[in-house]
Design brief:
globular, 16 helices, about 525 residues, about 35% helix
Length: about 525
């Protein structure tokens, strides 16, 4: 295929994207699902940031929920990965399909491992292999095919154009609106409450100045949070504690005095990643950019999120709300979630999230988006809340795969009037999900071992009751002692109990003592604490 210039690539990409509007209704409503879906679970993000996550290469498994789409007897699916997926993992997902013979679904699935475990994004690896590109192109029906990905960048755009199929994701030209600084701009445009902070800075000197100005605006501020503009999962965040600096301030400090103190104090920034250092972090600021915000104090404090979608036709839909479970040294790292968010504020989150969706739609952004919030109660009876918008995500985040697993397994619907999800049997569904059920004694477990444990202890999802656990990130177990799961129940208590039971079984099977209050159990606070 002839090499295209950037303007030609952008023009062809926009033409392909426009075709999604025509196909959207049939793709979404056709019960037979006559489509070819190319799944490219490429984490096309800054690779320095990605390396902070244990087993990040196995996160390509996060989109395996897409295999449940094979329940439609005419859907075909191509799933590309950097390394081969264990056959037993694929069998596990295909056995979840209700009413579809295993062999029929397997015949409509093409797995394409690249055998390349380098740090380059998966999309780049595909583009570098012309024969592989040709094989994928020949396997697709161009008039019925589309591509899905983890996040959309110029790499995914090039892949879409060279394969001649549309990408069901935001145009890379609009990705600024999913950065930390772009989020702040949209919150201001929508009138959403959000923390006081800065615009984008590209140098440490600018960061120091903006931090000093923020401190001057809020002279009693206790902490600030510094965020790399393209960080994710909280791993690019650092907390700056101002309390040690107050004794050093003069009665009427100048901006220059505050800047001097901050400049000397920045190396003590407390990072969420255990592998991060100020020297490395400071070097990333000119590359990725950064912002600084006031840190929201409060106890108790909750971290819910809203997930929505802008269709290719520009319509904005509410998908879900979650209470996120955060960990790390300062509670900034995403570990898991529970669905739905607390009934006391979830409809408020939905209202604010839909405003963001309307703004994104007006800018031409479509497909999934998430809005993260921090919520602090302002009254003991739960009638008043301080809700602050924190950031927008234009990608398939940590709450995407558990919700899509629930939706595809139950074929149910989200009710915007209540914020609940009802399964096909008419029963509200709840779940607890995590990417980070991680303990040292889980290391060495192979996917086959996990399957033995699931079968022996009946940990699988039961289609009859629409309850049970669905595991993911199984490739992380052997090396990193980490696995993910979504535990679905007919009540919050049942979902918690199902998750708790799965954790207890894994501990017992690895001959370890279960300690549900340990930090190694990331969902402890949502399981009754």
């Amino acid at each position: 295929m002839a090499t295209l210039s950037l303007p030609e690539t952008i023009h062809q990409f926009k033409t392909l994207q426009a075709s999604l509007s025509d196909r959207w209704q049939s793709m979404e409503t056709d019960e037979q699902g006559d489509a070819d879906i190319l799944v490219v679970p490429s984490f096309s993000v800054d690779q320095h940031e990605l390396q902070k996550i244990d087993g990040f290469l196995h996160y390509e498994e996060r989109l395996l929920f897409s295999l449940i789409r094979l329940r439609n007897p005419r859907t075909r699916l191509i799933y590309v990965t950097s390394q081969p997926l264990p056959p037993i993992v694929i069998d596990y997902y295909l056995q979840l399909l209700p009413g579809i013979p295993f062999s029929h679904a397997r015949d409509r699935l093409l797995l394409v491992p690249i055998y390349d475990q380098s740090l380059k994004p998966l999309s780049q690896k595909i583009l570098e292999r012309p024969r592989l590109m040709e094989r994928i192109r020949n396997a697709l029906r161009p008039d019925r095919a589309y591509m899905v990905c983890y996040n959309s960048t110029p790499l995914e755009r090039s892949l879409s154009v060279q394969l001649g199929i549309p990408l069901l994701a935001a145009d890379p030209e609009l990705l600024y609106w999913g950065t930390k600084s772009g989020s702040r701009q949209i919150f201001a445009e929508c009138g959403l409450p959000h923390p006081d902070g800065s615009d984008l800075v590209k140098t440490v000197d600018e960061l120091v100045k903006e931090s000093a100005l923020l401190w001057e605006r809020q002279p009693q501020l206790q902490r600030m949070v510094v965020k790399l503009n393209e960080g994710f999962s909280g791993e690019g965040n650092g907390i700056l504690d101002l309390t040690p600096l107050y004794p050093q301030l003069s009665p009427q400090p100048s901006i220059a005095e505050r800047m001097d103190l901050l400049n000397a104090h920045l190396p003590s920034l407390a990072f969420e990643s255990a592998t991060e250092s100020w020297a490395h972090y400071g070097d990333r600021i000119p590359i990725l950019g950064a912002i600084v915000e006031s840190y929201i104090e409060g106890k108790p404090k909750y971290s819910p999120s809203f997930q929505g979608r802008v269709t290719p036709n520009g319509e904005v839909e509410a998908l879900s709300t979650h209470d996120q479970i955060l960990g790390g040294p300062n509670g900034q790292v995403y570990l898991g979630c529970r669905f739905p968010a607390d009934e006391l504020y979830r409809l408020q989150l939905q209202e604010l999230g839909l405003k963001v969706g309307q703004n994104l739609s007006g800018k031409g952004v479509f497909e999934r988006f998430g809005v993260d919030f921090v919520v602090v109660p302002q009254s003991e009876d739960g009638t008043a809340w301080d809700i602050q918008a924190i950031e927008i995500n234009l990608r398939k985040g940590g709450t995407t795969h558990p919700f899509m697993t629930l939706k595809l397994l139950t074929n149910g619907e989200y009710d915007t009037q209540t914020g609940l999800f009802t399964g096909q049997k008419g029963t509200p569904k709840y779940y607890v999900a995590s990417d980070n059920l991680q303990k040292p004694h889980y290391r060495g477990l192979l996917p086959n071992d996990l399957m033995d444990i699931i079968a022996s202890h009946h940990l699988h999802f039961e289609s009859g009751s629409e309850t049970g656990s669905v595991f993911h990130l199984m490739g992380c177990l052997s090396e990193f002692g980490k696995v993910g799961l979504t535990s679905i129940g007919n009540s919050p208590e049942e979902a918690n109990a199902i998750y708790r039971h799965a954790a207890e079984v894994l501990d017992a099977e690895t001959q370890a003592t279960t300690d549900l209050s340990s930090p190694a159990m990331p969902l402890a606070w949502c399981l009754g604490q």
